[in-house]
Specification:
By secondary structure, the chain is mainly β. The chain has four helices and 18 strands.
Amino acid sequence: MYRVSCKANLSSNLSPKHLGNCSGVFLLFVLLTACRHSAKEQVPDAGLKLIPIPEQRIEAINNANKQAPYQGATGTVEGVVTMVGDAAPDMTTYIDKIPADCSIATNTYGKLFREGAGRSVADVLVAVTGYKGYLKPKADHVELLARDCAWTKKTIGVTFGQRIEVKSSDTRPYIPQLLGGPAGALLVAVPGGDAVPVFPQEPGHYVLIDSMRLYSKADVFVVRYPTFDVTALNGRYRIEGIPVGPVTVSALLPSTSSADSRQVTVAANQTVSVDFALKFSRSAMQPQAAPSATGPAKLPR
């Protein structure tokens, strides 16, 4: 893990021209450090990895209503998300920037959204809310791999207080930066090295980019609850540990803003099946909203 200092304002200008000098610094830095350090000789990260969000602040935000921790029976919600309407258009702006040897990046970012067999759709964030009781996430972080010039996920769900651990899983370095929040030092995920941490500072909607490859990005949703999942190419999701009673199940595909929700009742030790068919029309397509710590209107925070 290596630290990079660069004051380019990535949140206000993402053009390659604006970042040309900065990207050159990044590349030179990576090349030099790769020659001087092995994967076992990591440069200290100036304490950034040791600065999690205080537990008291996490509790105040995630449990603002001061509900008691839930200790009762739970159930599961699962289902499949498909797309109806127009097919995903090509993202020619991104395709033109992706190197020929980065096939995964082309498959990930080459179209507006990713579909599998039977028009199942990937990267849909599905959340369950409206239950009574306070739940904490089971882990303190969310893992994100970088491979073949791309993030392995285009949508990332995070409970406020968790960090995102970004790790290079090929021979390339990656520099994650979270847009939509305060700027800070950038850390380099080097091949064979440790994962680098990213700490979202507020609930809301962010975009995680790779500062070395601006076409590589993922929507990050930081919410106050742990009951969510993101669909893979098969369109499937599964959310366990939901308190019994009436709940709302919401689905959102960030790249198109397609959304839907259902009200269901969760029973103890039972699984409720909730499928979604999200709609997309090229004629009605709107530009994707900019990242904001206020969060998206179509997904409960």
